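Standup notes
- DV: blocked on the single-chain target, sequence here:
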Amino acid sequence: MESVLKQLAEELAGKTVVGKVYDSERNLFKAFSIKGVPTVMIFRDGELKESFVGGGSKETLKRAIEKYAP
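- DV (later): unblocked, structure below
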C-alpha cells in the first residue's frame, strides 16, 4: 500500500496531498474511529468525503481521489 500511495502522491502532486498516519498516532485513530489498517480517508476542504478499510489497486484509489480533486 505504501508504494501505491507514493506513486499517487507523485502523479497527483500539485492537485492533492497524500499523507500517512502511523500506528503510534493513537489520538488520530481514536478521533476518526479507525479500526483497521490500512484505512484510506479522502478529505476535501477539511471535510471527510470517503473512507474505506483495506488496500486497493492504484487505479481504484486514484479514481476515488479524483472524484474530489479540484
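- Follow-up: The chain has a mean pLDDT of 90.
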